[in-house]
Design a protein that fits this description.
- The protein has about 280 residues and is mostly helical.
- It is elongated and about 75 Å long.
């Protein structure tokens, strides 16, 4: 009787994450794509007065320069998605490559790489990204993507190394080596297909982290410069008007949180659908 009561709840939770996560992320993707062809107003045009309240002309009001705030928030979705996707791609490429090399390396080299990765992971991702951006002497979306990607690569590399070494202990890997399979054939034919499901969940989580780090960099003035309407820059500009025009801080915050929650729900849904033990429970 207890099993019959628990199972529907688990299935209901799993279905919730599987549709709520993609729905939230899909909404932001749709808004980001829409800004490529249409926005309510010119992003740089002063279409109203300073700090106007929400109205039929400006649904989210205007900012301190008289620009339509809804337009700024919509463009922020595009910037967040571009930076998050680029950072995850760079982090995945570097991390998976380093992790695979560490799994095949000698014990001495493997221990050295593992210690280096542990040291890098000990530093906050935001701090590493700040150091990379500061070293590049330029604050733009490209430098933010590279900085965040490099910061995320250590986490991906460590996970890839652990998963790859686990796969290398399997009997079918021994059989493949005995039959004369080369290392590239083992990597692309056996290791990557077996570790990819777990990595995909981690990539989704890294995407959410990348979005938060990008907003933090922009808040500190190290991200996309004006007139790019990054969520972090919108929050930074709203500090002085948070009491007179609170929507300037509330709207970007809600947009940022909803995207991160959607990504986390998507990752949780992927984990539930991929992990057979969780499906069994």
């Amino acid at each position: 009787m207890t099993t019959l009561e628990i199972t529907p709840k688990r299935r209901s939770y799993g279905s919730l994450t599987l549709w709520a996560g993609p729905a939230l992320v899909g909404l932001h993707i749709a808004i980001g794509l829409l800004t490529l062809v249409w926005t309510p107003y010119d992003p740089t045009g002063m279409s109203g007065g300073r700090l106007e309240a929400p109205s039929w002309l400006h649904w989210a009001g205007t900012d301190r320069l008289g620009r339509d705030f809804l337009t700024q928030i919509m463009i922020g979705s595009r910037i967040a998605l571009i930076v998050g996707t680029g950072a995850v791609v760079i982090g995945a490429a570097l991390g998976v490559t380093l992790g695979i090399l560490a799994a095949f390396a000698s014990k001495l080299l493997d221990d050295a790489l593992a210690a280096t990765l542990d040291i890098l992971i000990a530093f906050p991702t935001l701090l590493i990204a700040m150091l990379v951006v500061a070293a590049s002497d330029t604050a733009n979306p490209a430098s933010a993507i590279i900085a965040i990607g490099i910061a995320l690569s250590a986490i991906v590399a460590r996970l890839t190394r652990i998963l790859a070494k686990r796969v290398l202990l399997m009997d079918y890997i021994t059989a493949a080596r005995t039959s004369g399979s080369s290392r590239p054939a083992i990597v692309f034919g056996h290791i990557l297909p077996n570790i990819w499901p777990t990595l995909s969940v981690n990539f989704a989580l890294q995407f959410g982290l990348a979005v938060i780090v990008e907003a933090s960099l922009s808040y500190l003035g190290l991200g996309a410069p004006p007139p790019n309407a990054s969520r972090g820059r919108l929050l930074q500009e709203a500090r002085g008007t948070v009491y007179t025009a609170p929507i300037g801080a509330i709207a970007p915050g809600i947009a940022l949180v909803s995207l991160v929650i959607g990504i986390n729900l998507l990752a949780d849904g992927l984990r539930d659908s991929i992990d057979p033990t969780r499906r069994a429970r």
